[in-house]
Amino acid sequence: MANRRATRIIALADALSTRRVLHLKDAAALLGVSEMTVRRDVADNPELFGYLGGHIVPAADFEGDAPYELARAADSHAAAKREACVHAARHIRPDETIFIDCGTTLEYLVDLIPENYSTTAVCYSLNVAERLTRKPNVRIVMLGGVYHPSSASFSGNSGLETLNHLGINVAFLSAAGVDPGRGATCVHFHEVPVKQRVIALARENYLVVDKSKIGRLKPAFFAPMGVFRSVITEDGETMLSAA
C-alpha cells in the first residue's frame, strides 16, 4: 500500500512538472485510482501539491507567504456564500450578459442560473468556468492572459481588451474585505485591473460576500463602496445607491 502510494505521488509530481496544471479527473485517470484517492494524496502532501477549483498545481506555484487556497476557502462559510448567491441570483435576467468574478463565493451563483435562460457569462477563473460548462444554455466568454494558481484566475492585457468589446448588463463582484470607509479590497493585486475594468463597463454592479468579509481590509484596493448598487450577503441586500 505504502509503495503504491509513493509511486502515485512521484507520478503526479512528474506530470505536474510538465503540465503545471492537472484537472482532478485527469489525474485520477492517469494514476488509475478514484478522484477521492487523488484528493487524499494531495491533501497529505501540501509541500508538493495544491488544489484549486478542481485542479491540482505544484505547491511552488502558490503566491506569497500565506497563499490564498481555493480549496481551503471553499470550505469556509460555504452555507453563507451559497445563501448570498441565492439573493444575488435575483438579478440574473434572460438574454443578458453577466460577469462572474473569481474566488469561491460566486461558484454557487453559477448553479443558480435558470436552465431556460439564454445567458452570456464572462469570467476569468477556472473554477467558475468549469461550473459554467455544465450549463447548456450559457455562452461562456473566458478572459485569458497569465495564469495565477493562487486564485485559479487569469490576468493581462488580452483579457482587458476582450472586456472592451463586451456589453455587460450585470456584474457580480467578490471581495476578501469590505470596509465602509476604505471600500472593497482583495488579496491579489493581479485581480484589480479586471475588477476595475468590469465595474467601469457594467450597467449594474453588485458586491456579493458573506458577512465574515465585512469590516476586513485586504492589501489590494479595487473600488469604493459607492460604485456598487448594493452589497449582497447571506442576510440579503444593503442598498448603497438609488436604483
UniProtKB/TrEMBL annotation:
Residues 5-57 form the HTH deoR-type domain. PROSITE patterns: HTH_DEOR_1, HTH_DEOR_2. It comes from the Bacteria. Keywords: DNA-binding, Transcription, Transcription regulation. The keyword DNA-binding applies. InterPro entries: Carb_Metab_HTH_regulators, DeoR-like_C, DeoR_HTH, NagB/RpiA_transferase-like, Tscrpt_reg_HTH_DeoR_CS. It holds the Pfam family HTH_DeoR. The keyword Ribonucleoprotein does not apply. This is DeoR family transcriptional regulator.
